[in-house]
Design a protein that fits this description.
With 280 residues, the chain is α/β, with parallel strands linked by helices. The chain has 11 helices and 10 strands. Strand 1, helix 1 and strand 2 form a beta-alpha-beta unit. The protein is globular and about 65 Å long. The structure holds glutamic acid.
Length: 280
């Protein structure tokens, strides 16, 4: 592979819809315009919501639209051991801690503090208390320890930034990791969480340009921290607009927006999809 590397990284939690077709278009188009390669990655870490038939459908629907990608495809559920190593590394350096608070407790805390975002900032329990809770078998999540990371990184933290291609040159955006707070990087029911898995994969796959929707425009604020802590190269970010429905709401797999499979079943051709999206 030469040139830049982009990726399309859907989660198989439902059938792809027209918004995914637009997103895939942006990814492959960006790679094409820059003489690069577009990879496909299956982000199926949430085993409670992902299903193999949706993964199969992703291959079929993207193929039908005319996209192709190098093989083998990276499938996150098959890489759990690799993520575990990163989690251990972060925990071993004090950059992550075990948080025994439940989601509901955290929500209550956030409500009490009047915060509008789920930007929880906590700290590790004293060692003896942690030991007791582990011995009791209490459930915990690994969370990034942003206060510790900030004091460890010092000036590097103050200078954290990322590059966004908004067309017509790169813009530098100052990163604000506290926007996300101490994100969960692993849970008992999901051994790795989105930001860590995606950032690790982007690193291991040599992704140079991350092209994705504006719904994830805030993700670099925290993913940049992982890149710095782990010594991973920083990619350039490109955020494309989302496809909205008639009511101006974002399409979703959950809301059963017309899936690409249904459109195909009703006789639509890829050309009709591109025309509808005004992407020809
Ligand atoms: N898997 C994510 C999704 O389907 C995309 C993650 C990413 O592009 O970083 O929304």
């Amino acid at each position: 592979m030469t040139g830049i590397i982009t990726r399309f990284a859907p989660s198989p939690t439902g059938y792809l819809h027209i918004g995914h077709a637009a997103s895939a278009h942006h990814v492959w188009d960006y790679a094409g315009r820059h003489g690069g390669t577009a990879l496909l990655r299956i982000e199926d870490i949430d085993q409670t919501r992902c299903r193999p038939e949706y993964t199969q459908a992703i291959y079929e629907d993207l193929g039908w639209l005319g996209f192709s990608w190098p093989l083998p495809v990276r499938v996150q559920s098959k890489c759990m051991r690799q993520y575990e190593t990163v989690i251990q590394h972060l925990a071993g350096h004090g950059f992550a801690y075990r948080c025994f608070r439940t989601r509901a407790e955290i929500k209550d805390l956030m409500m009490q503090s009047g915060a509008t975002r789920p930007a929880y900032i906590g700290r590790p329990l004293p060692a003896a208390e942690e030991r007791d809770r582990l011995a009791r078998g209490d459930v915990y999540a690994w969370r990034l320890n942003l206060q510790e990371i900030r004091s460890e990184l010092g000036k590097v933290w103050d200078d954290l930034a990322f590059a966004v291609d908004r067309g017509g040159g790169l813009a530098t955006v100052k990163a604000d990791p506290f926007l996300h707070g101490d994100i969960v990087i692993a849970r008992k029911d999901t051994p790795v969480a989105y930001h860590l898995a995606a950032s690790y994969d982007d690193h291991i796959q040599g992704v140079t340009h991350i092209v994705r929707g504006t719904d994830l425009a805030d993700a670099p604020h925290i993913q940049r921290v992982l890149q710095v802590l782990m010594g991973w190269k920083q990619p350039v970010y490109v955020h494309h607009d989302l496809v909205l429905d008639e009511a101006g709401k974002r399409l979703s797999k959950m809301a059963k927006s017309a899936s690409l499979r249904d459109l195909r079943r009703y006789g639509h051709r890829p050309m009709d999809i591109w025309q509808r999206l005004s992407l020809q």
